[in-house]
Amino acid sequence: MELNEIIAENLKRLRTERGLSLGRLAELSGVSKVMLSQVEKGESSPTINTLWKIATGLQVPYTQLIDIQATKPFFVPKAESALVDDGKGYRVYHYNRAEGSRDFEFFNSELDTGASFTSEGHGTHTRESLLVTAGELVLVLETVEYVMAEGDFIQFDSSRPHTYINRGEVMTVFTNIVYYEG
């Protein structure tokens, strides 16, 4: 099943379960009703930030939009993980399936040399734990830059905008867990 089909099915299911119209979800998420309709029909490939906004509006973890619903343990090779690519040198792979009781998401991200990505935030009451596993990462939180090398770890409030930058000479790889606090 293609990622757009998965997103379309999940968006429709989650919106319907909550009794939300497209108009009401547009108000809650800040994503236009037209865009929501296109995503729900599988006619649009939403950006990473658009998916985060929709997830925030629905008050669900991001992966509940992009994961096939599963209840059994499973093995996911990288080649079969869900990939979201911004087309500008930033790729995000996620490995855990959405579950109603799970309050975190697990991602592995790649940032090409010279690339950057700004997240608008992951919704209220979210914290991110990030571990650099290869290369060097500059994490910008408000006006503070954290220069992180392989093996460095940081935890921060991810409800606010933050930027990942690779100023190094090799691809940066980092693992991040987004935790949704009560």
CATH evolutionary superfamily of the largest domain: Jelly Rolls
CATH topology of the largest domain: Jelly Rolls
What's the architecture of the largest domain in CATH terms? Sandwich
- Average pLDDT confidence is 88
What coarse outline follows from CA principal-axis ratios? globular
SS-based structural class?
Answer: alpha+beta
- When the domains are counted, the total is 2
- Secondary structure: helix percent: 25-40%
Gyration radius over CA: 16 Å
Strand content: 25-35%
Annotation, overall tally of beta strands? 10
Q: Indicate the CATH class of the largest domain.
A: Mainly Beta
Instruction: Count the DSSP helices.
Output: 5
Q: Biggest sheet: strands, sense, closure?
A: 6 strands, antiparallel
Order of helices and strands: HHHHHEEEEEEEEEE
Segments where pLDDT lies below 50 for 5+ residues?
Answer: none
Pfam family, one: HTH_3
Protein name: Transcriptional regulator, XRE family with cupin sensor
Keywords: DNA-binding, Transcription, Transcription regulation
InterPro entries: Cro/C1-type_HTH, Cupin_2, Lambda_DNA-bd_dom_sf, RmlC-like_jellyroll, RmlC_Cupin_sf, TransReg_Diox_bact_type
